[in-house]
Design goal:
With 83 residues, the protein is of the alpha/beta class. It has a single domain, classed as 3-Layer(aba) Sandwich (Rossmann fold), CATH 3.40.50. The protein has 4 helices and 3 strands; from the N terminus they run αβαβαβα. A 3-stranded parallel sheet has the order 1-2-3, with helices on both faces. β2, α3 and β3 form a beta-alpha-beta unit. The longest helix has 16 residues. The chain is globular. The two termini are 21 Å apart.
Length: 83
């Protein structure tokens, strides 16, 4: 799987929950660069520190109307940090 996935970026919402965290672990181990999103910044920080590969996190509720502006800025910062 590593040859097929190398150099890829994945965005995982709900990253700190059971399935999201498991997907993050699996994709990070498969050389994906990750953008993680969840409501808890503390849980995101913990998860990010446990991953074997590069990851950035965006904390916030995706239903929050104010978040899209923050996501745009985070997207720009993420592209710079992951490339």
């Amino acid at each position: 799987m590593t040859e097929v996935c190398s150099g890829k970026v994945a965005v995982i919402t709900g990253a700190t929950g059971g399935i999201g965290a498991a997907v993050a672990q699996a994709l990070s181990a498969a050389d994906y660069r990750l953008v993680l999103s969840a409501r808890s910044s503390e849980k995101l920080t913990s998860l990010t520190s446990e991953l074997p590969g590069p990851a950035v996190s965006i904390a916030g509720d995706l239903c929050d109307a104010a978040l899209p502006q923050g996501r745009r800025g985070a997207h720009i910062a993420t592209r710079r940090r992951l490339h």
